[in-house]
Amino acid sequence: MLTVKIVEFDSVAPPPEDLLLRLSALEAPWVVLPVIQRVFLFDDAGGQHPPFASLVGSLRASLEATLARLPPLAGRIVFLPSTGDAAIDCSASEGSGVRFIIAESDDADAGRLAGDADHDVDAFKAFVPKLKVDALPAEVLAVQVTRLKGGVAVGVVMHHAVVDGRSVWRFLQAWAAACRGDDAAAEAVVAGLTFDRAVIALPGGEEHTRSTLRKYAPNLPLEINLFPNAPINRRTFTVTAQQIHRLKQRVSGHTAPAQAGSTPAPSSFVAVVALAWVSFVRSKHPAVISADHDVYVFFFIDCRGRRGIDPPVSQNYFGTCITGCLAKATARDLLAVDGFAAATAAVQREVRRAAEDPLALWDWMDLLSWMPMDRLVNISGSPRYPAYEVADFGWGAPSRTELITMNNCGQVVLVAAKGGGGSVQASVCMHPDHMGAFKSHFLNSLSG
């Protein structure tokens, strides 16, 4: 059994900011939802890592510099009883700062963990700290650095009410640049960012946000009932750029530009999501999903710059600015010979709908309350997230990075794969009874 020993607890606290940021209605539901836990594994097979103490010192110092540029990450989510709001308090307060944990494990092999397609879930969880979020004030960020056999793990946990995927990767890019000593690059990443939640102008204004908060967290500041993580099998697939190109051709039917009346080639996101959806349905048919069932795929869309919000939210907004999207089909359509094309068309329609009216499913938690979860694929992340490219802290890109917070059978997490070039990393959470069939259909479809 793997053991991880905590060596040191520390706190990184940049100069406090006199800043109080009330959460928006798009952020309020995330107060009761799982945090973002991500681990980065660095294999030192080539012996390029600095000594562990030096590596830790660089990470700690650069984190402090980065937090000074991104003050919400060093704050706390607090409850304001006078108004009923939840807000990010960036000022100096009891327990402020970011916990920075140093750990070691003599029996966790960095090379093995980074190379295994199947996740060692227990090991990955041991490399990320827990965030204190079961009541307000709640932490926003914590970091753990673990010395491994032949490498190191950097675990980061962040509150989803304060950051979405786009903001997470912006933070990591700025932190890594600062750790490499490239202050100009770090400054460029955060230049022009806005933290003001008032830029998200939703109908109903502040009262809309308060009613949303009361709906999902009625007992604030205490008794936040967080959704539990499920101990389900997880596996990572890498879909190469060439394989994605073949998937797109399968829909468009030719390599030339789409002609009038033909189906346009899907994006990489749509192609991978459609394949995962079809593989999910096939893996659970007929034991769980019958041909007559409706099946669903849920994903998020970034609201920054969308016409449906007036005025549009700046691309430089640092926070959580996403809403839900839901595509629906009958299992029979996805089980058919042209099931991939049917899935692609359904996902494309929902992407187009969301681009025109991004706020239609803003209250996505209410939507999921009636959803049959055993017939739902839940997509997180995006092939646009440069997970490996931006996380070079000065000793090379990570050998592996994974999202630890995977909550149900059928969750798929997407990021750009290591090496870039249009390849996609897809991490899949499935019940053991169905993972084998999912893997078989997913990989056979890519090789066909």
UniProtKB/TrEMBL annotation:
<protein>
    <recommendedName>
        <fullName>Anthocyanin 5-aromatic acyltransferase</fullName>
    </recommendedName>
</protein>
<dbReference type="InterPro" id="IPR023213">
    <property type="entry name" value="CAT-like_dom_sf"/>
</dbReference>
<dbReference type="GO" id="GO:0016747">
    <property type="term" value="F:acyltransferase activity, transferring groups other than amino-acyl groups"/>
</dbReference>
<keyword id="KW-0012">Acyltransferase</keyword>
<dbReference type="InterPro" id="IPR051504">
    <property type="entry name" value="Plant_metabolite_acyltrans"/>
</dbReference>
<keyword id="KW-0808">Transferase</keyword>
<dbReference type="Pfam" id="PF02458">
    <property type="entry name" value="Transferase"/>
</dbReference>
